[in-house]
Amino acid sequence: MAGGAAAGTDTGTKPAAGTGTAATAGTGTAGAAKANTPKVANLSPINVGLVGTFSGPIGALVGGTTTGARVWASYANAHGGANGHPVNVLVGDDGGDPARYNSLVKEFVEQRNVIAFVQNTLGFAPAGNNEYLNSKKVVTFSSEGGLNQFYENPYTVTAFPSGDMFAKAIIGAVAQEAVRAGKTKVASFACSDFSICDLFDATWKDPAYMKSIGLTPMMAARPSLTQPDYTANCLAAKQAGADLLVFGMDSASIERFASDCARQNYRPMLGTGDIVVNAGLPKADVVDGIVIGTKITPWTATNVEGVRTFIDALARYAPGVAPDGSNILGWAAGAFFGAAAANLPAENPTAADVFKGVYQIKGETLGGMTYPLDFTKGKSAPKKLCFGIVVIKGKKFTQGPGPALNCPKG
Fold this sequence. Notes:
Layout: E1 9-11, E2 22-23, E3 46-52, H1 56-62, H2 64-77, E4 87-93, H3 98-110, E5 114-118, H4 131-135, E6 140-141, E7 156-157, H5 164-181, E8 185-190, H6 198-204, H7 207-212, E9 216-221, H8 231-240, E10 244-248, H9 251-263, E11 269-273, E12 291-294, H10 305-317, H11 327-340, H12 351-358, E13 362-364, E14 373-374, E15 388-393, E16 396-399
Parallel strand pairs: 1-4, 3-4, 3-5, 5-6, 6-7, 8-9, 8-10, 10-11, 11-12
Antiparallel strand pairs: 2-4, 12-15, 13-14, 15-16
């Protein structure tokens, strides 16, 4: 195993490519070990779980998070592990079945001694139902970003905008570029297939909020990701006078949507969010110019320490895998767990030790990848809004103008 990463296990359909299945502690940089941690992960191994919908159409969306978590893990274990503990990441595919999700997390906790979870796709199969892990007081570190519960439950914590904050991060990034281009009349299309899209829809058609960022909602619709043709949606947006389309849909659907609009000689500005964007999207001519709002510092911001570390580690531990909006989130979720695991005891670390570690996180930015993280026991995590901007130009992901991470005041 490259980098000294501990062996891991896949349960269910094997997710996207990656090497190693391990995780580690780290503060200051994404995945880098603290100066006072051992240089060799030579204590007893610990297990971390990652359960989600990693097959089928949803797997195409979020499967890259498993690659990112594994790459981060391999890199970080090579730098001392979780305060000296090598960590196995056990990956389980729920196949979109809520019962399967609950069965897997129960198996991981009760039979495999998993002490924390990273980047579970709570917004898909379980539709936010995390009662089992909450009852066992096992922390889930971040998710795909569609839920507000990460601000409401001490055992689900996030290192970047989630729920309505994620919806605002996407539209905030898009608005910054759209207003500059004079494209302010919005038609929004949040998928009808999953509850994760509900907050996107509600936020993007709220006239008061949209006005506050310089946009005017003209129409909103809830198409399905499995819809074979979006011509009717294109014509409705065109008739409504929209010059900007915002999507809460997967990359394949966005490409089909843009193609259907182009056939109607309708080529508005486009916008979407990071979790739905895979490395293949820039290849489509019809999406050239699309603005991608990210909830952390984007993978294109190579001047940021944490991003550079991620890019270098991806090249080493998953050669041939291009960085995108999904695998960088898996990396960041792992690094977030690492920050909480920085002071695990040498003997028999438990879920309670990880939970305690959450409240020792003060001012952590994961190497500049997110806003300063501060957790206070007995209080919900504060909602914070920051976003990055990526624009597809010339069939490449390019860094948007301005700071790598925008944090609007108020």
